[in-house]
Amino acid sequence: MKMNFANPKADFTFKRLFGSDGxxxxxxxxxxxxxxxxxxxxxxxxxxCNIENIPAMDTEKESYLDILCTDKLDNKFxxxxxxxxxxxxxxRSVFYTALxxxxxxxxxxxxxxxxxxxxxxxxxxxxxxxxxxVISHHIVCDxxxxxxxxxxxxxxxxxxxxFHKELDELQTNMDKWLYFLKKAESLTMIPTQFAHLPExxxxxxxxxxxxxxxxxxxxxxxxxxxxxxxxxLQAGIFEEGLEEGELREKEKITxxxxxKNKDIAEISELTDLTxxxxxxxxxxx
Length: 285
Hints:
single chain, alpha/beta, 2 domains, 6-stranded mixed β-sheet, two-stranded antiparallel sheet, 8 strands, extended
C-alpha cells in the first residue's frame, strides 16, 4: 500500500519531527550528524525550551524560533528551517545567537556562567554564492592564526539545494537525513536504505499522514498553505525584479539611440517600448 508522506520542511511537520518530546531521538540524531559529533562528544540527552521570546520592553525586537533545546551541559541549540529565501537570514541567525547569550545572564550573574549557543540553519536555497558545499561550519577565529577565539558561539548552515545524491548513493546517516528532508514527501514507501534504522523508521512514521488525526491534518494543511503562499510571493518578487531590470536595460539602450538621433519608430521596434515611453525618455534628455 502506498504511503502519503507530508513535507518535512513545512513548519508543522518540522516541529513535529524535531521539536517534540515524544521524538527527541530524532532531534539528537539530526544534531549529532550535522555537528559531526562522535561517541566522545555526542549529544545523548536534550530538553526543549520555550521557543517564544517575549521582550521585556516594547522597543525590543520579538523573536520566534523554530526549535530551541539544551543538552545536559546546558549548551543551547537553535534549529531553524528556512524554506523561503530571506536576504537577512545570516544577520537573523547572528541576532538569535546573540539573544541566546543575553538571555543566560541576569543581574548579578558572573559571565563565567555563559554556555555556548550553537545555531543550525537548514535552508532550501543557496546561502553562499559560488559554493556547492552542503554543510558549512562557522566560528569566531583569530585571522592571523585561524584558531578559534571564542567557543561561546558557532553557526552551522545546511544548504539542501546543494545536495544531489540519489538513493543508491547514500552512504552516511547525514546523507540519509539530507535526502529525507529534501525528498521524503515525493516517496510512496520507506526506502530499504532507511528501513533498518530505528530513527528513520520513526521519522517516516511521524510524517505518514494516514496516522494523523483530522485536527493534525488540518494544522498541516494550514502550515503547507502558508509555505506555498510564501513561495509564490518569493517567486512573484523575483519575476517582478527581472521585469524591472529588463525595463531599465531597454531604457538605457533607448537613451543611447536617441542621443544618436535614431528614429523613434525604429527604436520602438527594436526595444518593444511604446512611442509614448520613448518620447518621455527623450523629454528627460
